[in-house]
Amino acid sequence: MNILLVDDSRLARQELRHLLQAHPEVTVVGEARHAAEARQFLPTLRPDVLLLDIHMPGETGFDLLASLDAAPHVIFTTAYDEYALRAFEVNALDYLLKPVQENRLAAALAKARTALVPLEITLPISVPEPAPTLLTEHDQVFVKDGERCWFVRLADIRLFEINGSYTQIYFEQHQPLIPRTLQHLEQRLDPRVFFRANRQQIINLKWITGIEPWFSNTLKIQLREGPEVEVSRQQSARFRELMSL
User: Residues where 4-aspartylphosphate occurs (predicted)?
Assistant: First the structure.
């Protein structure tokens, strides 16, 4: 498991390195002092997990995640307890208060190991293939949430959205949860129809009813029957490129 430490405190980074020595399966691939430096390191170091502080000079840890279209798993390390709810809203694996305790760090790393285990593919296809087959908008998929089941056309799904450790599917008046990541779904869905708007949402382009400019050269998209979706800066540029003549 490769980990990048992101914290403006040199002493905090040293303490984390010391605690991680008790976990031989962990490799610290680098250290970043702030969000901008972490953003620079991510493409080359490609860590599996970020040990991420929240309060840093310039941008917060939340700002860093919001600027990324795809991010490693995140374990927050912070001296403040009031951001715990928001941390889990951005799909963090865990939230560790400083000074970080050995047993809490061990538990968080165990969650990371579980999250890094590849998930089996369960979305049905008409003819089984040895490799995942791209699903078109005309395909139907089986969806089960608790005791309720649906067989729904992908064309009728307007939005996929992260909800905790699950993904929520929006179709008709239903919003069931499935145990799949957006990365997994993105690999299976037709990119001509389904677009990754940000870290947390994939939209069906055929359900768009309105587009308007938003902050910092981003876009806000209105889907038929809702909701509104804010497109990240990078994906806004990609959307303009894809949709323009």
Answer: 53
The alpha-carbon radius of gyration of the chain (Å, integer) is: 19
Range of the domain at 21: 2-116
Cis peptide before 227 (omega within 30 of 0): yes
Structure tokens belonging to residue 219: 């876009």
Question: Are 28 and 91 within one domain?
Answer: yes
Pick the more confident residue, 52 or 82.
Answer: 52
For 89, other C-beta atoms within 10 Å of its C-beta total 14
63 with 160, same domain: the answer is no
Residue 135 DSSP label: B
Distance CA 143, CA 178 (A): 7
H, E, C per residue of 136-182 = CCCCEEEEEECCEEEEEEHHHEEEEEEECCEEEEEECCECCEECCCH
Is 77's pLDDT higher than 90? Answer: yes
* Residue partners of 84: CB distance under 8 A and separation at least 6: 95
Q: Are 19 and 5 in contact (CB under 8 A)?
A: no
Domain annotation covers residue 130: no
pLDDT (tens digit, 9 = 90+) per residue, 23-46? 999 999 999 999 999 999 999 999
Number of domains in the chain: 2
Asked whether the beta carbons of 47 and 27 are under 8 A apart, the reply is no
CATH value at residue 109: 3.40.50.2300
Answer whether residue 224 is part of any domain.
Answer: yes
Binned at pLDDT 50, 70 and 90, residue 119 comes out as very low
Q: Is the pLDDT of residue 120 over 50?
A: no
- Does residue 161 fall inside a structural domain? yes
